[in-house]
Design goal:
The chain is mostly beta strands and about 210 residues long. It has one domain (about 35-209): Beta Barrel (Porin). Helix content is about 15%, strand content about 40%. The chain has helices spanning about 5-15, 60, 85-90, 120-125; strands at about 45-55, 70-75, 95-100, 110-120, 130-140, 160-170, 175-185, 200-209. The chain has an eight-stranded antiparallel barrel. The longest helix is centred in the first third of the chain and has 15 residues, at about 5-15. It is elongated.
């Protein structure tokens, strides 16, 4: 066998021994989940709807004859600035607007503020688990008069508008859908004569664009 022929046969060996690898033979790529609020195609980052229980233990939450259920929703807008550093990115909030309607005719309200989102152990939970914090202002239709004249079934809220703080523990089901357990508190921080406030507990489902 001549040297050129031998060289050709040796060169064909890898083509015969090494079989093509199909996509099915490759290990699956690790799943990734949306980290809000990067959304270059829309000013809206996320929409959430849910419900809550009106201040259990208070006049608006424990007296018989009144519905204690709230229906609420909110819109979270995209962050005004995006940082390449995840640490600093967590300090940039999403502008947020929302509202809650009490089905029993008690205090309903609308709010405006900012939401901060922090992923909890992203490597361990594959970016599924997150914490939210909200701070802003709230306007309501509840009772703001003297405590002695508070109507039956209402809290004495003192004034409107007030401050609203809220927190949520969430879990991302998919790239777009998530569920959250929520708590919120509204009060006037002692700036008005009466400051009973409202503290509601509930849950939401969110859709991220």
């Amino acid at each position: 066998m001549t040297a050129p022929i031998r060289a050709c046969l040796i060169g064909l060996i890898p083509l015969v021994v090494i079989q093509p690898v199909s996509a099915a033979d490759l290990p699956p790529a690790p799943a990734t989940y949306y980290a809000p609020p990067v959304q270059p195609l829309s000013i809206v980052s996320e929409v959430r709807i849910g419900g809550s229980v009106q201040d259990p233990g208070s006049a608006e939450g424990k007296l018989p004859g009144f519905s204690k259920a709230n229906v609420n929703g909110e819109i979270l807008f995209a962050k005004p600035a995006i940082s390449a550093d995840p640490f600093w990115q967590a300090f940039v909030p999403r502008p947020t607007v929302g509202g809650s309607y009490n089905t029993g005719g008690r205090t309903s309200y609308a709010y405006l503020g900012a939401t901060w989102t922090l992923e909890v152990f992203p490597e361990t939970f594959n970016r599924r688990v997150f914490l939210d914090g909200f701070f802003g202002g709230v306007a309501h239709n509840g009772y703001t008069g003297p405590k002695a004249d508070t109507p039956y079934g209402f809290n004495t809220l003192g004034c409107s508008p007030m401050f609203r703080e809220a927190a949520a523990l969430g879990f991302r089901l998919t790239e777009h859908w998530s569920i959250m357990a929520t708590v919120e508190h509204m009060s006037n921080a002692g700036l008005c004569a009466n400051n009973r406030g409202l503290t509601n507990f509930g849950g939401k489902i969110g859709y991220t664009f």
